[in-house]
Amino acid sequence: MSVKPPFTELEINTQDSGFYEGYSLPIALISKVGMVLLVLWALVFPAGAGAMLSQINSTLLNSFNTFYIISVGVFAFFLIIIALIPATGSRVLGPQGQKPEFTNFSWFSMMFGAGLGVGLMTFATAEPLGLWGSNPVVIAGDAPGNTPEALTSTYRYTFLHYGFHAWAIYVVTGLSLAYYAYTRGMPLTIRSALTPLIGRFANGFFGHIIDVLGVVATILGVSVTIGYGVSQLVDGVYAITGAAWMMDTTGDTPVPAKAGLIAALVVIMGMSIISAVSGVGRGVKYLSNLNLVLSLILLLTFIVFGSFLFAVTTYATALIDYLIAFVSLSFEAYAPLSQEAFAAAAPASVQALPAEALGAVYSGATNPWGSLDGFTSGLEGAAASLPAADLAAAYDAGDQGRLFGWQAGWTTFYWAWWIAFSPFVGLFLARISRGRTVREFVLGAVIAPALVCFAWMTILGGTAIDLEINGAADGAIIAASNSAKLFVTLEQMLSGGLLQGLVIMCVVLIMTFLVTSADSGILVMNTIMSGGAQETGVKHRIIWGVILTLVIGTLLLAGGGGLSALQNAMIIGALPFTMVMVLMVLSLIKALFNDSRREKAGIAVGDPDAQPAE
Q1: Three-class SS of residue 370?
Q2: Which residue, of 11, 166, 333, 505, has the greatest Cβ tally within 10 A?
Q3: Longest CA span, the chain
């Protein structure tokens, strides 16, 4: 059977003049109208918007949690397979003989900075400490939370969330974009990655929708990242200045107040917009270098003053455990537990309870963040008077529900976050990877960054856990909010001027990470809307910077000052793009297979002069 040449006649019509000159009008308008409507809804009906997003998110997770988990597992194994197969692993992203544009060191540094940043600042201590208290092993009762026995499972899931699977998500998007851009001269935009499946349909409305999904995912992914970052920034500024107006101290744990969050957001986004439109954007390179230096200083501080020996031993044992459990971690998805199924598995005394009391027992027994003691002490009325053995059996009957709730609220949240962030990171990875082989791309962009993430999590997070295990912290780090855990850990390690200097350095580091993330996010959104153009209009960067600020601000308000509304919107928005990514995998399989057939038939694969079209 003859092999047809690949479809490369991708045409993304852009405006020749007027306000939208250089932009695809359908992509820009659909994206802009959609985001403006979201902002107006959250602004006019903040409580209703927050509740509605929560309800939609809950409904979608009940149906699509397994889809998220299995999809990401497939992404990881797909990349491993194509890297190991000689014919695909040796294929060059560009014409044969093309040399990499950047040295290995520069390539890795840029890649690492793009994929990480402010997320590692917030979660370096918060992630291991959170998982130390709640993970599937703890929920199943096989190890008590916040004890040395739970340490292995803590880092098994920490490595899952920040390891090979996370980077595989970025690389699926980046590799797909790079392959078509550098072997076929197609635009660096999302629809290019689906052309082997949809062909000429990519030139029409269907192609516009695919790019819009990429824009929406990017906006929501960047929004969550900035939301976490500004929250930690407020905590850091409060630690330095003691400005009480920035914090809400009415609860047991101080958390950033709405006024503090909005003030920090306006400052960060103002700096980002100025950077994106004034030519200072070229200074992102220098900010990235500053980020790397400050990150190394922070890491060195933990090595010298923290629990480095504890971290080294934890790294080794956790990495082995993670690799052993890799397959099960990739595909183990938990299903929701209905109240009817729970009641059927519960003791007869529980089944006989009135509907309201039964609902309270079900809710408590399936709460993934609770415990048996918390479950029993929280019951009232007839449910509270049940025998202790029956309550324990009812709690056991809720195991599946707790495991589902934990996975949906933790692992699936991370997969949605990385997926929403993948158009941003993937596009950047594609831009810097011309001349790399597929194998180099996978090893360099999946394995190497993950190993560095593991070190970061074990050195910073391991120090925090060790301070709690040996009693030095006396529960202070665990009790702190996620965004404050890093600063509380530093307070347990250091004092005086050194502590003050490190906290100021961390605040500067968070600010530069936030500015570079927001600046780059604005540029990526404009690149997609302009059909892959490298240079985009200044006025549109300003407009999208303002829209991004409004999206984050209104969803923070809709979440009552917390991040729940942002998180829910992001998980909802990431679902369609997850489906696009599954199609990317199928498209790349088809492209690699057919290009191999073309080579065997003596048909040239790729244009020696191929450059991403604009």
Answers
A1: coil
A2: 166
A3: 80
